[in-house]
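Malate synthase N-terminal domain-containing protein, marine metagenome. Tokens?
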Amino acid sequence: MINKYNLQIDPSLFSFVNDEALVGTNINQEYFWEGFSSIVNQFQPINKLLLDKRHQIQSQLNNWNKKNKGKEISIQEQKEYLQEI
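Tokens:
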């Protein structure tokens, strides 16, 4: 991993951004990584909350599917459950 501005960046991504994506854009590599780090850090708290919520919903879906395995569930019942959670 490449450490830059409090980010751990996969070398392939780092090379792609620096050697291909930024070429011809007049954006300095350091400027890009510093700005990207700022954005990542700004949105990290809300991103964590959203990922936690997604995990919670996925767990509920997994439990519901286990509980109802082999049962014939109508589309309406499935929709109602999804709206409930």
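Residues 2-84 form one domain.
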